[in-house]
Amino acid sequence: MDTSSFTGSVALVEDGMVVSEVVARLRASHSEALLPIVNEVLERASTTLTDVDLLAVGTGPGSFTGVRIALATAKGFRLVTGKPLVGVPSLDALAAAAVGARGPLAAVLDARRDEVFVALYHATAQGRDILLPPTHGTPEAMGALVRQTAGNTELLAIGDLSAALWDRFTHGAGNGITVLPSVAGTPLARFVAHEALSGLHPRDDGRLEPLYVRPSDAKLPTR
Predict the structure, then answer these.
(1) Residue 220 has what pLDDT?
(2) CATH topology of domain 7-89+186-198
(3) Closest Cα partner for 120 from 95, 84, 85?
């Protein structure tokens, strides 16, 4: 499951194939929307949560509320079922959506507050190496950073940004970026599942935490 953006999704994957999947625009609170989506996915597949062998959840960055609630829900499922849980960074799942990409690949998400979240990978037929861990900044600054990190070579980018943010991001990179077809509304849950099944991410040992990348907008009151 993944609720790191306003487009939340839950998927059931078996032998690498998506068996059941629900995507929802989360306009209500994530906590109210997530459990019904999980139930619908299971009902469509005529199965139950206890039949699932592996649980996977997107850990962010993204919506602070969404990431926190998805992680809490997944941990609750693990306690109830006793099944293993794998956390997958949302930018890793986004990069996995660039099927067949080779070379430098930037995964980009709208971080609000006039910023984007970004990570840079080197994609090969065998997988991906991280060139730049998840970070955040203005679209122009992040475009320049990924281009510099990639050695000022041409690179690919995939993400869920408005046209205006993409223009600023590519301009910052000196227009040395090829933006892959839009993944706006793409259900990241299926790629979270694929990443979890790949064995590239460790199973939770009880210390899985959200990957916020930047401080939350919500501040605790001072005493």
Answers:
(1) 40
(2) Nucleotidyltransferase; domain 5 (3.30.420)
(3) 95
Measured CA to CA, the distance from residue 17 to residue 180 in angstroms comes to 23
- The structure tokens listed for 26 are 């989360």
Of 192, 216, 186, 191, nearest to 74 (Cα)? Answer: 192
**pLDDT tens per residue across span 88-107:** 999 999 999 998 999 999 99
| Section 41-63 average pLDDT | 96
**Residue 81: strand, helix, or coil:** helix
Give the separation between CA 5 and CA 3, rounded to whole angstroms.
Answer: 5
Same fold, 7-89+186-198 and 98-179: yes
- The 10s digit of each residue's pLDDT in 169-211 is 999 988 789 999 866 666 789 999 999 999 999 999 989 999 9
Query: What class, spelled out in words, does domain 98-179 have in CATH?
Result: alpha beta
Contacts of 150 (CB under 8 A, 6+ apart): 104, 120, 131
Distances (CA, A) of 179 to 36, 126, 159, 187: 34, 22, 8, 19
